[in-house]
Specification:
By secondary structure, the chain is of the alpha/beta class. It is built from 19 helices and 10 strands. A hairpin with a 6-residue loop joins strand 8 and strand 9. It binds adenosine-2'-monophosphate (2AM).
Length: about 500
Amino acid sequence: MDPQADIAVIGLAVMGQNLILNMNDHGYTVVAYNRTTSKVDEFLAVEAKGTRILGAHSLAEMVAQLKKPRRVMLMVKAGSAVDDFIEQLLPLLEPGDIVIDGGNSLFQDTIRRTKYVESKGLLYIGTGVSGGEEGARHGPSIMPGGSPAAWPHVQPIFQAIAAKATDPATGAQEPCCDWVGEGGAGHYVKMTHNGIEYGDMQLICEAYHLLKDGLGMSPDEMHTVFKTWNEGELQSYLIEITRDILAKKDDDGSPLVDKILDTAGQKGTGKWTVISSQDLGIPITLIAEAVYSRCVSALKDTRVQAAKAYKPGNTRLAGDRDAWIEDIRKALYASKIISYAQGYMLMRAAAQEHKWNLNYGGIALMWRGGCIIRSRFLGDIKAAFEKKPKLENLLFDPFFKKAIKGCVRSWRKVVSGAVKKGIPVPAFSTALAFFDGFRCERLPANLLQAQRDYFGAHTYERVDQPRGQFFHTNWTGTGGRVASGTYTV
Ligand code: 2AM
């Protein structure tokens, strides 16, 4: 029998299964394989029953069912499982065949694997897939990168199964999937997406904390606030689920959210984003605070002790409640703009470092639907890059400039109010501190350079001399004349 499958998917955990079912819905014939082959039989007998989905009990059997060029997508645990499968697949595939990794791989691994697979004459794609189980089943956001020559062969499948979102420029429905760039670009953009997701979630949690402890609101009252917010410029999936979470009752009829232990977990993509920002020297302070806030939350037992040692005082914010709610909304909106501006600064720096030609508006459109950070706001970002593809910083776009200016009074009121009352707002306040630093023409780093030169002869540049000339001062009269030379880490 002639090979009839359009694509193979390896890995039958929930994401893999749902992607297969989604591909099947769009008319593609998929062959499914899993290390534990009993899962193939279970899948074919239950979830895939009555579909055209095929199964295989060995990689050779799987490959034999594929049309050429063969497309093999891995939906397995990130890490060594991906490398192991690549090794097993290479002898079974031919030049021109395509290996796709749809897991949450570290972008450096994807850079390495792209080079390795290409060196064997095959093509490689490392792709972010966002949207959780539901997204995978009915339309995820897909962010592919790797070997450019592979893209035309997977584009029809990926764009068919991806979520669709309205392009604000044309009003047309566009797939939330487009080619991101070479090597690890797709996984880098997915990683940044996850970092931004950490930031968005932390911002919402801080708003919730202020409404709860600052204004004494009940979950039902907060449900109404989030419902209203979701009808305006904050409209997004995360605000929407927060609205619904606040309305959810436990079996005894009390709000479920109040019963949930306040310790957050993490799987590491937020951390990777922050590590990459440190490598590139880009201040993504909001995502960093979001990661650290999860770490603080994890110190539950220590916090319980500390709460006894440093008893919090009255946390109620004085003044008109409705005015505070609107101020908190604006502080959240402004902080969110800062977070996305920082995320885009990071992607821009990574693109420069790795020579990726990223399409920033296209990325916003990919995130506009299907994924966890999907929002109306991303349409505004797309529009900003549409107007000016080479926009240096989101904060210079007229729409966002106006938005920030319209929020700044409320933002300061909320951050200072929270500080006075002892309600922690690390993401709101770091966003404001970044904004104030970003728009500060003369920071105190002149003093810092003087300190560095004082103790380490690290030299400094002068305001009255051209850039690139370095000076050293013998500050104490006892040091030598020799500078240690300039270096940047
Ligand atoms: P399994 O069902 O045989 O455990 C999510 O964990 C998916 O990744 C599952 O399909 C799982 O296969 C697969 N997976 C995890 N680690 C693996 C490994 N080291 N080798 C092959 N597949 C692996």
